[in-house]
Amino acid sequence: MTAKPAPHLTDVTGPYWEAARKGTLQLQRCLPCRAIVHYPRRWCPHCWSTTLEPIDASGKGAVVSFTIVHQPPDDSFGHDTPYVLAIVQLAEGPTMLANVTGPDAMDVRIGDPVQVRFEMRRIGLVVPQFELRMKRGPTPMLGKPALQIAHVKPPKKARKKRT
Amino acid sequence: MIWRRSRPAAIVAASQIPADRYPDSDGMGLLERIVGQFLNEWPSVSRDMIDGLLVPPATIYGTQGTNTYIHQRLAGRLGLQPKFAETLNAGATYGAMIARAVMAVEAGACEAVLCVGVGKFPSVRLSGPALATLVGDPDFEFTYGASIPAMYALIAQRFMHLRGTTRRQLSAVAVSARDWSLSNPDAFMRESGPLTHDEVAESRPIALPFRKLDCSVPCEGGGAVLVTAAKAIGRAEHAAYVVGIGEHHNHAYLSELAEPTETGVSVSARRAFEMAGRTPKHIDIAQLYDAFTITPIIQVEEMGLVARGEGGAFFESGAAGPGGTLPINTFGGLLSFGHTGDASGMAFVIEGARQVMGCAGRRQLGGVGTALVHTYGGIMADHATLILSREP
Questions:
Q1: Taking CB atoms and an 8 Å cutoff, what residues of chain A touch B253?
Q2: pTM
Q3: Could you report the predicted ipTM of this complex, rounded to two decimals?
Q4: Distances (CA, A) of B262 to A18, A67, B251, B267, B294
Q5: Distance separating alpha carbons of residues B311 and B295, to the nearest angstrom
Q6: Partner residue facing B255 (CB), from A6, A77, A97
Q7: What is the mean pLDDT of each run of 10 residues along chain B (392 residues)?
Q8: B145 near A CB under 8 A
Q9: What domains, with CATH codes, occur in chain B?
């Protein structure tokens, strides 16, 4: 069994993975235009400022879309199949890709609220992942089914349409 | 993007080899085979008239690794010394390649550009990580086991959720493509016979909602076209004028998009319609890049060929198939003609051009005045739309 792929750390992305190792999901905030950015970048994609400060995300988000992967792109994921791959919109606005994990992961639906958790992949490498924030199904204590929980609204497009 | 059309350019010759497996040919060998067939099929095209050459790398995942000097090699073998040449891979490569040829010809940089597509598709198992990290983020996507089908599945699931597309409608796209391929002697799947909706929906799961038969068939092949402004060339009565070009490069990585169904198809198509001075109503047939069953549904909706939310029903009704009102992917698409790796998009250009030129052989449709061709690249990141017409 080969090892799962590990991210390649650079001076821009290194702090993100270092924060994950310490149990924090880190985003960037652009100082001049206040846009919140993920994945880590050298330039703010909205105003090209290079002054981006790290901020700690709440770790809360909602599932924008998901798929259940049966045929992995690499043998190293073979043991995990089928697994859930999802686009999560964070409460702060940016979207990111991750796996939804946990015992009820296969029940995931679009719009479900999720919470970050951290998967130790090997010594020195921790990968942010998500789990469903509440269980769906015949648990009357929850009140509402998860699907009725409001989506996190997509942020207004910061990039102006060029005419 | 409204261009000055002092010299309207046209595709005046088009040829391709069957989608197949060519174990005896490396990328360069396949390129020679394609050009050889083109020259046999179009004897009126002479060495003297070609002064432009556009080729893709031959071939990224073939036996030769990446080579960005293929234009030199091919020019050398053909004894060409072009004024304009490039080894090009833009994503949405062939829509973009034709666009660049048209720009060169219309600007007067050269008279006739030979555009060649060639591709080998290695084993998906061996090339999975390389392909997935080419079009996906190696750090923030591939780390999570994001295969190419899985990334498209993320678009599909969201689209189906928002627009109400059903599993059966996805199957209908594969069924329609197979039906068309049965009349194309060059299609890889023609001998497999017609498909049923159930066969698609019950094939091996790849990444929900995709089953094996929702995914295009890896094979090898390619083709060539000649883009020129001089109407005297070749069989001049066979001209497909490039009246509209739209291009749009939307994102680097899919997971950046807060709304993964808005990939920029509509932007590219709108630019092409504006330049052509035409609307979706003018389109007689469309060739829409179909690496997966969801993507033609997305394209017909996003281009305004059908109303939003009606793309799935459009395919399910048979309107896109043989005998339908708006034939789509009349050569079988990547789903049943075959996905020829780095050459894949060329098949759409060639079929669109042949139908407009009246050179589509047994599957020639009547009354094709205007065809739309759309290619995309990456995870629907790059887009190029062409509108081809019998009239300049």
A1: 39
A2: 0.92
A3: 0.93
A4: 33, 18, 10, 10, 14
A5: 10
A6: A97
A7: 69 96 89 95 92 81 65 94 92 94 92 93 74 90 96 98 98 98 97 97 98 96 92 67 96 94 98 96 98 98 98 98 98 97 95 96 95 97 97 86
A8: yes
A9: 10-122+220-228 (3.40.47.10), 124-214+246-389 (3.40.47.10)
